[in-house]
Amino acid sequence: MLLAINSFNQYCFANLAHRSENYQCPACKKPVVLRQGQQNVAHFAHQVQTGCHAFTEGETIDHLLGKMALYQHFAKDYQVVVEPVLRQISQRPDLLVKRSQGKDLAIEYQCSPIGKKRLQERNQGLHSLGLEVMWVLGPDYYHRRLSGELTCRFLDDGRLFFYVPKQKRFETRFNFSKTDFHKLQYESRTGFGAAFLSAVKGKRPEKQFTLPSEINQIRLVGPTSDLAQHLLYQRTKLTLLMVQGRINLDLINYLYEQGHRLDQIPDWCLLGQAFGLAVPNWHFRLVLVLLLERVGLSHWISEKSLSARLRQYFYPSFQDQEKILQATYADLASSGVICLQDSKILVIKLLQFVAD
């Protein structure tokens, strides 16, 4: 821990503490000792194992350095409390930023792995006190390739924040996209820039979700930027997965019953780049095409009903499911496939499967 209570009942930072003084844990009030040296970041630790749940022992150097660096940066402009003890929920976020307007912000600097259930519990606890929560990820997360599901867990309005103490590197990642058979794509900025500062201030970014199908508008990744070659590459990969038995047989059989083949799905299914899906873009788009087939030409379906069937294909923690769905519908509407009217969808034409 970075803070302890001295003999005058005052909070004291470990880097300003003296070995000759006595200190107590802010949570359990039991004695703590000051640990500092050339190899260690100054911090306090319990003298004996007390079962104190508010303060976790064994913090890494990266965690201590990162927490102090974040505090020093934001304490210039905000009232920041380090390691506040929230007794109502038995939690202690790393930082608590006091805002002049709106909800206060709890900042969690996460260096070690954390399970999905534990993450949800910590978020729910902080939200129950009316706090907003922001996660900043440490070097272990920064230096690895994060899965789509793990990325969604820590997103803050489409942004992911990192801090690497030893490099003094702060990075914001945003504008995530995922083309099938390629790694996750994103843009990034280094430094404590506008994106992070706006999040601390409580300002939310205006995000535009567009999923265009035209080659001059779509950002293709991989060995070629040519549309025809891109489609050929996607179909080849899809066929290979089918041969390897890595495609759901129920889907293959359903297509066969409808007179379709997986390697002949409409081109539109192979152009998806939406991030946040628990399945490949081609799978999500194909399901949508098949659902519209079942609705039938010149027939209506409620947007609510269609969206309910499609939400199961997103990661549960993804915050922007509705915006992706709306952007996908808008793409189909601009192509003349559907018409949107009064929260209802009219099927105007069906996307054609590719012939031999």
TrEMBL record:
This is Competence protein. InterPro entries: CoiA-like_N (IPR057253), CoiA_nuc (IPR010330). It comes from Fructobacillus americanaquae. It comes from the Bacteria. Residues 19-54 form the Competence protein CoiA-like N-terminal domain. Pfam families: CoiA_N, CoiA_nuc. Residues 59-152 form the Competence protein CoiA nuclease-like domain.
